[in-house]
Amino acid sequence: MCLKQADLRKGRRILIYGASGAIGTAAVQLARYFDADVTAVCGTKNLDLVKSLGADHVIDYTQQDFTKNGQTYHVIFDAVGKHSFKRSRDSLEPGGIYLPTDGFENIFLALWPSRKEDKRVVFQIPPRQAKQDVLFLKDLVEAGKFRPVIDRRYPLEDVVEATRYVETGQKTGNVVLTLDGAR
């Protein structure tokens, strides 16, 4: 729900780096719901997926570096923690924000914002998940306006195998642990 801080609406341009992961697939759908112009960055195998989730534009990070294409965005959301404010700064509009999902450096940068064209890191400290945010997602799912993307399911007893798969960094969407052998 850190996307609340992005003030997403019609006319706002957001780039989602890591758009095919668990957080990224959710971010693409939520940004689309709020009518923002969505650019999704992911690997080749997931380009069609992120388009199907509502991305207006897609960038294959194996073919193109978004920081060198001359485009600028109101918001850059790093859904996988593999980019940085420093590398992204020139791709932000004046007054733009960089939304990371993790990183000690980002916490520091959020506490001491940059003065260069008021571009800044926004990091919710401490991270919060309000009950109304969860209920909002529930309503979107029930209305068919949001679909969780599930890569694989593992029974709870295979949690180590599931963790190994997640740590490969190659999953698409979410990995789910099931109880009582439910698949």
Summarize the structure.
About 30% of the residues lie in helices and about 25% in strands. By secondary structure, it is an alpha/beta fold.
Tell me about this structure.
With 183 residues, the protein is of the alpha/beta class. It contains six helices and eight strands. Strand 4, helix 3 and strand 5 form a beta-alpha-beta unit. The two termini are 28 Å apart.
Q: Using DSSP, what is the number of strands?
A: 8
* Secondary structure tally, helices: 6
Strand arrangement within the widest β-sheet reads 3-2-1-4-5-6
Gross geometry: globular
Instruction: Give the rounded overall mean pLDDT.
Output: 87
Order of helices and strands: EHEHEEHEHEHEHE
Structural class from helices and strands?
Answer: alpha/beta
pLDDT < 50 runs, ≥5 residues: none
Any idea what the radius of gyration is?
A: 17 Å
The termini sit apart by: 28 Å
* Helical proportion, percent range: 25-40%
Largest sheet: 6 strands, parallel
Strand content: 15-25%
Question: What are the defining features of this structure?
Answer:
two-stranded parallel sheet, 23% strand, 183 residues, 6 helices, 6-stranded parallel β-sheet, 8 strands, single chain, alpha/beta
Layout of secondary structure:
Blueprint (H helix, E strand, L loop, with lengths): L12 E5 L4 H12 L3 E6 L4 H6 L4 E4 L12 E6 L6 H4 L3 E9 L3 H8 L8 E2 L9 H12 L7 E6 L3 H9 L6 E5 L5
